[in-house]
Automatic annotation (TrEMBL):
SUPFAM superfamilies: AraD/HMP-PK domain-like (SSF53639). Residues 9-188 form the Class II aldolase/adducin N-terminal domain. Catalyzes the decarboxylation of 3-oxo-tetronate 4-phosphate to dihydroxyacetone phosphate (DHAP) and CO(2). GO terms for cellular component: cytosol. Its cofactor is Zn(2+). This is 3-oxo-tetronate 4-phosphate decarboxylase. The lineage of its organism: Bacteria, Pseudomonadati, Pseudomonadota, Alphaproteobacteria, Hyphomicrobiales. It catalyses: 3-dehydro-4-O-phospho-L-erythronate + H(+) = dihydroxyacetone phosphate + CO2; 3-dehydro-4-O-phospho-D-erythronate + H(+) = dihydroxyacetone phosphate + CO2.
Length: 212
């Protein structure tokens, strides 16, 4: 089986997994992977992640031109922006999962990191989570904001929208997204209770032990 066929099948499997875990709903959210030749596979526009068909997944050139499959998600442009800025990124997950979107709707005093470092696994898999200002769905101006955040971050939170998470593989991006959603859930469960986030020293120790 070719790399492309394997990745198409993997997008279908992971899309179904995320849908069945109720992290994706309706036709919201999109997944993409980058092939060795630089072309991009991305879920089609108005598709449900729980019912993807491998042959209908969009294939784009590195410049975003459609090569095969259905028309891509209308948000494909910010996937391209991440790939342009992060050469090591091979996959991207963008969903509208409940707790992460709820966190994106809050007023944040510090937009450099929208969720506290509650666990070591959030630090390892997500890192700092900058909050990007609101853009309407499909607004191409969002690409510049995503590109700028991608220079130093593998994940970000779009205001009133949801997270974008990249990884060196689709599995890594999915696992990091799940960790982000669990941290958002913990954030709301803790609520106004006094919490004990990881200290800067603890985070530095994690970064030394598990460099990204």
């Amino acid at each position: 089986m070719s790399q492309e066929a394997e990745l198409r099948a993997k997008i279908v499997r992971m899309g179904s997994l995320l849908y069945n875990r109720q992290l994706a709903h309706g036709s919201a959210g999109n997944l993409s992977v980058r092939l060795d030749d630089g072309s991009i596979l991305v879920t089609p526009t108005n598709s449900c992640l729980g019912f993807l068909e491998p042959e209908r997944i969009s294939k784009l050139t590195p410049a975003g031109e459609l090569l095969s499959g259905d028309p891509p998600s209308k948000e494909y442009f910010f996937h391209m922006a991440v790939y342009e800025e992060r050469p090591a990124a091979k996959a991207i997950v963008h969903l509208h999962s409940t707790y992460s979107v709820a966190a994106s709707c809050l007023c944040h005093a510090h937009t450099g990191n929208a969720l506290p470092p509650l666990t070591a696994y959030h630090v390892m898999r997500v890192g700092k989570l900058p909050l990007i200002g609101y853009y309407r769905p499909g607004d191409k101006a969002l690409a510049d904001a995503v590109r700028a955040a991608s220079r130093e971050h593998r994940a970000m939170l779009l205001a009133n929208h949801g997270p974008i998470v990249s990884g060196s593989s689709l599995e890594e991006a999915v696992y990091a997204y799940e960790e982000l959603e669990e941290t958002a859930k913990l954030y709301f469960i803790i609520g106004d209770r006094k919490a004990s986030p990881l200290t800067a020293e603890a985070i530095a120790d994690i970064d030394r032990a598990f460099p990204s």
